[in-house]
Design a protein that fits this description.
The chain has 15 helices and no strands. The chain has 408 residues and is mostly helical.
């Protein structure tokens, strides 16, 4: 899909300074959200679960973290509406710092119940930050949706990449307690900066209510889009949460090497978001999306079959390359088919999508307990097949409803 043009065919006018200031604050908040939401996948080897794996306990870790993110996202909606974006970000960053410090103080061999508390608090803070970030970038999204989504994805992935690199780089130099306290400095400093910065712009229009949201799902296209995003975010969450442990357990790689491959995954996602914007302007969105869902399927098969480092790198490149394009392409398609869709509003399509990302990492833990570590690649493979089928169902729905736009 080509970016929108003005009625005269010229490039869109530059956004006002207030929009740019709000977007900058939101984009850096997305960096923090990426740093926090990717945390568990990077610290599990540092907690020595590659030596004494407890898949059920790890699954519960993900449940507590994701419960915090979910509730923080819901609380963020109310906080933004009542106090504004700045207050939401200040509170979210402060809670995230507290949660990271708790995780540092009560890392193994401390009792796991304290880590449950730390993950929940850090997750709640991440949910507040994520909600505030999406609301802060809302004015920029309304001006240029594709560019804003791509840049937001870049900053989120940069945060996740930072987490993986910090843990890998300090793995043998510092204790995990020191690493987590070091990471806590980022949200703590951000909380102080957001408290002293000019008030971020508030969202001027009201979010759709739940009754309005339910009306969205009367459309088959809306249901198919929601399911596609559900499986896609689930695929990404499952792989990034468990990749490091999988590579150690299945291939015998060192913890540092596995963390560096996880960092490579995040780096390729970041580069793909940057390259994807140019590709979207030059090629059919439908053809790009069709190719993007096939690469991860093949990459998951390689990850299941390989027994060496070269195969692992090949799988990471294939999977990350496909995943990098799927999300911005689908989000751009939603904006075209549903003009009222807005990623800053936690309702309807986007809430269903986030649920997939929350549930998948915990599901992998339960499956791995009963069927082995291969579930780390098996579940995303099944999810990629689901994304492929849902894409072609969307193509069929578009043809049957006689839409003027083309998905192919």
């Amino acid at each position: 899909m080509q970016p929108a043009e003005t009625p005269t065919g010229s490039a869109p006018a530059a956004p006002p300074p207030a929009t740019l200031a709000s977007a900058r604050g939101g984009l850096w908040a997305l960096f923090l959200a990426g740093l926090l939401m990717s945390l568990l996948g990077a610290v599990l080897p540092a907690w020595r679960y590659h030596i004494e794996p407890d898949f059920l306990l790890i699954a519960v870790y993900f449940l507590f973290q994701n419960a915090g993110i979910w509730l923080g996202t819901l609380a963020g909606r109310r906080l933004v509406a009542r106090r504004g974006v700045a207050a939401d970000l200040v509170m979210g960053c402060a809670l995230a710092a507290i949660g990271l410090i708790l995780l540092g103080l009560f890392s193994p061999p401390a009792h796991f119940a304290w880590r449950f508390a730390g993950l929940f608090v850090a997750g709640f803070g991440a949910g507040l930050i994520h909600t505030g970030a999406l609301h802060a970038v809302a004015p920029a999204y309304e001006h240029e949706p594709a560019s804003t989504l791509s840049l937001g994805g870049v900053l989120f992935n940069l945060g996740a990449l930072t987490t993986a690199l910090v843990v890998a780089g300090a793995f043998f130099a510092y204790t995990i307690q020191a690493i987590l306290v070091l990471l806590a400095l980022a949200p703590a400093a951000a909380s102080a900066l957001y408290a002293r910065s000019p008030r971020l712009s508030r969202i001027q229009r009201e979010e759709p209510g739940w009754r309005e949201t339910l009306r969205d799902f009367r459309s088959p296209a809306a249901v198919l889009f929601a399911l596609l995003l559900f499986f896609q975010l689930g695929n990404e969450g499952a792989l990034t949460g468990w990749m490091a442990l999988y590579l150690i357990q299945r291939l015998g790689l060192s913890p540092v090497t596995s963390l560096l491959l996880l960092a490579l995954f995040w780096l390729l996602l970041l580069l793909g978001r940057v390259a994807g914007l140019g590709l979207m302007r030059r090629f059919s969105a439908g053809r790009l999306l069709a190719g993007a869902v096939l690469f991860p399927m093949f990459g998951c098969l390689v990850l299941l079959a390989t027994d060496n480092l070269f195969g692992a790198i090949t799988a990471v490149v294939l999977i990350a390359g496909g995943f990098a394009l799927i999300l911005p392409l689908v989000m751009d398609r939603i904006a075209g088919r549903f003009p009222y869709f807005h990623p800053g509003f936690f309702s309807g399509i986007f809430s269903v999508a986030l649920t997939g990302g929350f549930l998948a990492p915990a599901s992998v833990g339960f499956l791995a307990h009963f069927s082995g570590i291969g579930a780390v690649a098996g579940l995303p493979l099944a999810g990629s097949v689901a994304v492929f089928v849902l894409y072609w169902l969307l193509v069929l729905e578009s043809k049957l409803s006689h839409r003027p736009e083309k998905l192919l």
